[in-house]
């Protein structure tokens, strides 16, 4: 899976380093001073990850928990995200990570206790009734969790933070580590979903819709709260029927009381990311989409189309029996 | 006729090539040779020599492709010596700092760092090894010059030694002849079969149209997107029904404009619908002689209005048209309530 593991010298003997490296006994290891000395210092082609993916193990420095941008999550609540990894094993054609780090290599930060301290600090400072912490802003929260092994730590941490919610956002079906833990009301596992044909065409190397729905069903039966992200929604001729069918499949496997929220977001890019999409996936049907470049440097559908799509999706959700207050529009304020 | 340019740092590396092919020196350009199918350039060692020399040659001669052949040092002992490897990405080191800009040369092979000075100690080798397994002295500069000239470059390196484990210069000197012979044999064994696939010839369809450069660029971009949308170029052309425009009794340039508009409508039917709705909304104002400009991204229900007033009646007509303007309809359109998706 990895061509090489690069480890910061100061954590050489960290138990989490051993936990990870033991799983890859044949992969060469190189010691480095700091991840930042190497990762992202030279521009590496994004698609190199297909043949030659390196893993960096280090400690996150700087701001460990960051305030989320406006309209990031459910309205009227406070949102933060924490960074415990960079990059992802999947290859979604629209993914902003392809234009973000200038390197496709994976980085796992292992100083979860420091991240946890910061979460507690923010929790104590907060006067909000509910404060959200999102994992997986720059990675998939679950895809590699069997390797990184941090979930028990966060489950334990959030046990004592009743006014906080933790979102674990994923496209994976790697739910075994979750099934070994006791579900908590303030830990929501959220799945990004698209119609089956769209996943096949655009979410390269990710589990199929069928498998993701099965994972949702299993977790819901186990007692987990589930969130659904219909994001990014891509417009195509059979848009309405495709999402009608998707929503019906979701409600079939997910009892309404287990659904924490459902977010809707329409595909959008910065022009830098769109440039990368063109370079990396020149034959993608995204390039035949009705995008416009905005003066702010974004590439997205014109507002009338975005809004029409969101209105339609909202009504489809309601027709499917999903409570209106559980549906929110992402990044559209 | 454009020729491939074979490029070497040292005369020793190029020697068997000079003997094998019928190269003769190009007058007044030191290190440049020419034969029927190839140029051959000897640049001298280091990026400062190699880059400018290649840039000069690329600016002066018709070169189809640059191929760099030469020696590289390995930073990892796991790399087998005396093998010839294609180079995938090339990075640059300067004053012990890695430079961000890199060049991707191919999809397969190993990565290489071009260094400003020879790498002789294992401490520096260890630092560089975090980025790539091979080092040389020229390739990044060659790739930079080729990129500026818009010419494809590929590189093949014979791994001569592991940096820090031997007296590099001595070893290379001793085996120079063997290495360069190996490079020649490798080059001759490269699959020379040029890509025979012929791009579908669509020029024939444009007879009877007149495309300015700008219209031609638009046409090509749109055709490429339509091919993706419809699954193939043939299907895109069939959906386009070019003959329906070709047979119109109008000027060739007008036909080209109509064709590009048709391509845009096929690619962006929703945007076409929006633009028709906006035309409808502003019909009375345009009839009153006003010009309306909506923001291109339609993020807000706003527009700019301009009109030429010559007499009092013009004002009265314009005021009436403005009073009748259905602003609510515009808001509904922008907010997506008028589109049926």
Task: Kindly describe this structure.
The complex is a heterodimer of chains A (333) and B (341). With 333 residues, chain A is α/β, with parallel strands linked by helices. Chain A has one domain (4-329): Alpha-Beta Horseshoe (pyruvate-formate lyase- activating enzyme), CATH 3.80.30. Helices cover 32% and strands 23% of the residues of chain A. Chain A contains eleven helices and 18 strands. Chain A has helices at 15-21, 35-38, 112-125, 145-148, 151-159, 176-179, 196-202, 209-222, 239-253, 271-280, 303-319, and strands at residues 4-8, 29-32, 54-58, 65-67, 78-82, 85-86, 91-92, 106-109, 131-135, 164-170, 187-192, 203-204, 225-233, 259-266, 268-270, 292-293, 298-300, 327-329. In chain A, strands 4-5-9-10-11-13-14-18 form an eight-stranded mixed β-sheet, covered by helices on one side. In chain A, strand 13, helix 9 and strand 14 (259-266) form a beta-alpha-beta unit. In chain A, helix 9 packs parallel to helix 11. The radius of gyration of chain A is 20 Å and the shape is globular. Chain A starts with a strand and ends with a strand. The model of chain A has no long low-confidence stretch (mean pLDDT 94). With 341 residues, chain B is an alpha/beta fold. Chain B has three domains: 3-189, Nucleoside phosphorylase domain (Rossmann fold, 3-Layer(aba) Sandwich), CATH 3.40.50.1580; 198-267; 274-341, no CATH class. Chain B is built from 13 helices and twelve strands. In chain B, strands 5-9-8-6-10 form a five-stranded mixed barrel. A two-stranded antiparallel sheet of chain B has the order 11-12. In chain B, helix 1 (11-20) packs parallel to helix 5, helix 6 (213-230) packs across helix 7 and helix 6 (213-230) packs parallel to helix 9. The longest helix of chain B is centred in the middle third of the chain and has 22 residues, at 168-189. Chain B is elongated and about 95 Å long. Classes of the chains: A alpha/beta (333), B alpha/beta (341). Chain A binds chain B through residues 6, 28, 30, 32, 37-38, 41-45, 47-48, 51, 102, 235, 239-240, 283-285, 287-288, 290, 292-295, 301-312, and chain B through 78, 88-89, 91, 98-102, 104, 107-108, 129-131, 224-226, 228-229, 267-271, 274, 296-299, 333-341.
């Amino acid at each position: 899976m990895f061509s090489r593991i690069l480890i910061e010298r100061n954590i050489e003997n960290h138990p989490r380093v051993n936990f990870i490296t033991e799983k890859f006994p044949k992969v060469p290891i190189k010691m480095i001073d700091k991840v930042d000395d190497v990762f992202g210092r030279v521009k590496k082609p994004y698609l190199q990850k297909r043949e030659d993916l390196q893993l960096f193990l280090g400690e996150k420095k700087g701001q460990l928990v960051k305030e989320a941008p406006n309209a990031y999550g459910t309205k009227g609540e406070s949102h933060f995200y924490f960074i415990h990894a960079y990059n992802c094993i999947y290859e979604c054609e629209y993914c902003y990570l392809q234009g973000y780090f200038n390197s496709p290599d994976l980085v796992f930060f292992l100083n979860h206790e420091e991240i946890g301290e910061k979460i507690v600090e923010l929790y104590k400072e907060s006067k909000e009734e509910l404060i959200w912490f999102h994992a997986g802003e720059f990675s998939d929260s679950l895809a590699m969790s069997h390797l990184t092994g941090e979930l028990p730590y966060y489950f334990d941490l959030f046990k004592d933070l009743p006014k906080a919610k933790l979102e674990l956002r994923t496209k994976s079906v790697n739910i075994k580590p979750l099934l070994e833990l006791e579900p908590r009301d303030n830990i929501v596992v959220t799945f990004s979903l698209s119609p089956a044909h769209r996943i096949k065409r655009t979410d390269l190397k990710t589990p199929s819709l069928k498998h993701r729905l099965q994972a949702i069903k299993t977790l819901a039966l186990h007692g987990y709260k589930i969130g659904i992200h219909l994001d990014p929604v891509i417009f195509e001729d059979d848009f309405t029927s495709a999402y009608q069918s998707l929503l019906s499949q979701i409600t079939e496997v997910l009892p309404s009381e287990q659904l924490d929220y459902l977010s809707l977001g329409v595909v959008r890019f910065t022009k830098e990311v769109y440039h990368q999409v063109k370079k990396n996936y020149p034959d993608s049907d995204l390039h035949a989409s009705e995008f416009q470049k905005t003066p702010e440097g974004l590439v997205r559908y014109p507002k009338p189309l975005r809004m029409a799509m969101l209105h339609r999706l909202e009504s489809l959700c309601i027709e499917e029996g999903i409570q209106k207050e559980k549906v929110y529009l992402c990044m559209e304020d | 006729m454009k020729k491939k340019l074979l490029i070497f740092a040292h005369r020793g590396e190029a020697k068997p090539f000079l003997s094998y092919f019928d190269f003769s020196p190009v007058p007044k350009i030191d290190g440049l040779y020419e034969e029927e199918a190839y140029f051959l350039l000897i640049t001298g060692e280091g990026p400062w020599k190699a880059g400018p020399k290649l840039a000069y040659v690329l600016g002066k001669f018709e070169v189809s492709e640059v191929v760099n052949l030469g020696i590289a040092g390995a930073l990892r002992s796991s790399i087998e010596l005396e093998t010839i490897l294609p180079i995938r990405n090339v990075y640059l080191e300067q004053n012990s700092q890695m430079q961000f800009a890199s060049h991707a040369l191919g999809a397969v092979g190993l990565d290489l760092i071009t260094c400003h000075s020879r790498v002789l100690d294992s401490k520096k080798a260890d630092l560089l090894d975090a980025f790539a397994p091979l080092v040389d002295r020229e390739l990044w500069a060659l790739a930079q010059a080729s990129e500026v000239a818009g010419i494809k470059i590929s590189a093949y390196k014979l791994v001569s030694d592991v940096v820090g484990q031997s007296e590099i210069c001595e070893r290379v000197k001793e085996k120079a002849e063997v290495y360069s012979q190996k490079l020649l044999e490798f080059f001759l064994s490269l699959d020379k079969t040029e890509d025979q696939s012929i791009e579908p010839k669509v020029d024939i369809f444009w007879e009877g149209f007149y495309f300015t450069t700008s219209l031609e660029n638009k046409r090509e971009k749109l055709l490429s997107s339509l091919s993706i949308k419809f699954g193939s170029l043939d299907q895109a052309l069939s959906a386009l029904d070019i003959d329906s425009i070709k047979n119109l009794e109008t000027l060739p340039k007008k036909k080209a404009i109509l064709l590009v508009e048709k391509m845009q409508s096929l690619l962006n039917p929703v945007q076409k619908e929006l633009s028709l709705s906006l035309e409808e909304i502003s019909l009375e104002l345009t009839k009153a002689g006003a010009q309306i400009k909506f923001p291109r991204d339609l993020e807000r229900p706003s527009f700019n209005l301009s009109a030429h007033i010559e007499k009092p009646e013009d004002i009265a007509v314009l005021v009436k048209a403005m009073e009748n303007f259905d602003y609510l309809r515009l808001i509904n359109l922008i907010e997506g309530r008028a589109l049926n998706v």
